[in-house]
Design a protein that fits this description.
The chain has 13 helices and 12 strands. It is α/β, with parallel strands linked by helices. Strand 8 (245-248), helix 11 and strand 9 form a beta-alpha-beta unit. Helix 8 (159-172) packs parallel to helix 9. The chain is elongated and about 80 Å long.
Length: 348
């Protein structure tokens, strides 16, 4: 025999909204209360409906996720991990891809989220003060991933320290001519650009600390793709004195670097060491040394922080700054002079 949410709330001696949160496993309900509510609901044969739950809580039951890109591996990973957390809490996801300047302007120009979402996750966008004001005007909780927005809850990576660690690994192996391949954004890109820029700063800092002069001739920026990495490595190989190692700002670009080196008959790591950034699942297959910045964890933890803002009395979660970890595989080694080797001659 079916029952109503009011009957469950009365018997459990809690509010209707507490029943809704307990049955959807949302934060803000003690374990003891959650178990009691779930037991009583089962005894009374109560099955919550989505519409009823939304009416009881006064919520839409949806979270808006705003992202500049859906095609890159990084965004797919953070979206998947954040989505799992939100679905487990009973929320649907509204996805907004702000792939160009026009789409970004349209989104922030109006109140498109009013009455449609209970909160907003912003991934890898560096919002302007005006855009922040537009979001706040909609009176919705907001959490940020990767943008490092001061005073706003979210999750980010210490990319400066990560870039420094990647370069220091190559320096400690004995490399002195270390190149950097960075991410060049398109003219109408909506990406914030802060993480790649901080990786470059860390790289330069590590060189300076080691008494090595950073050289713009060894810094190449291309689009964040395998093809972009290939083009960047080709340009570096045309330098008067080629590097012996390269730190690449994304694994997808590093895959292109490895392809170009293989096509040129350049042995990795015998003649060229390569460090990537992401710990993409293919990096293990390609034996790529890389920086792991816990991509899936970034998505799930940002979602949890937003849920804490939405749930009454749940308590705000502190900002999380993650440290990237060096994963040493087979694409890095001491330079050939330290191992008594001669460089391979590129094939033409």
């Amino acid at each position: 025999m079916s029952s109503t949410v009011d009957a469950v709330a009365e018997r459990a001696n809690v509010s209707v909204s507490t029943v809704s949160r307990a049955l959807r496993d949302m934060p803000g309900v003690s374990l003891e209360t959650r178990k009691r509510v779930q037991r009583i609901a089962q005894e009374l044969g109560y099955v919550p409906s989505l519409a009823g739950s939304r009416l009881a809580t006064g919520r839409t039951g949806a979270i808006a996720i705003v992202t500049p890109n859906l095609s890159r591996w990084f965004f797919g990973q953070v979206l998947a991990s954040a989505g799992r957390v939100l679905r487990q809490a009973g929320f649907d996801v509204l996805l907004y891809e702000l792939a160009d300047t026009a789409a970004r302007e349209r989104f922030f120009a109006g109140s498109s989220l009013t009455g449609r979402a209970d909160g907003v996750l912003v991934f890898a966008l560096q919002p302007t003060p005006e855009e922040l004001a537009a979001l706040e005007a909609q009176n919705l909780p907001v959490a940020f991933l990767g943008s490092g927005t001061p005073g706003r809850p979210g999750v980010r990576v210490d990319d400066h320290a990560a870039g420094r660690a990647a370069a220091r690994h190559l320096i400690n192996l004995g490399h002195e001519r270390i190149a950097f391949i960075g991410i060049r954004e398109a003219a109408d890109s909506t990406l914030g650009g802060v993480p790649p820029a901080n990786r470059l700063k860390g790289y330069r800092e590590a060189l300076t600390e080691a008494g090595l002069e950073p050289s713009q001739d060894l810094e190449v920026h291309e689009e964040n793709s395998t093809a972009g990495g290939s083009r960047a490595m080709s340009r570096l190989l045309c330098a008067e004195v080629a590097p012996t190692a390269v730190f690449v700002a994304s694994d997808e670009m590093a895959f292109g670097v490895l392809r170009t080196l293989k096509a040129g008959g350049i042995d990795v790591p015998g003649d060229m060491s390569v460090v990537g950034f992401d710990n993409h699942e293919l990096s293990e297959i390609l034996d790529l040394t890389t920086m792991d910045h816990s991509v899936a964890l970034q998505g799930s933890e940002t979602a949890r922080r937003l849920l804490a803002l939405i749930t009454p009395d749940a308590g705000a979660e502190p900002d999380l700054v993650l440290s990237a970890q060096l994963v040493i595989r087979g694409t890095t080694a001491p330079p050939f002079p330290l191992r008594g080797r001669r460089p391979a001659t590129p094939r033409t």
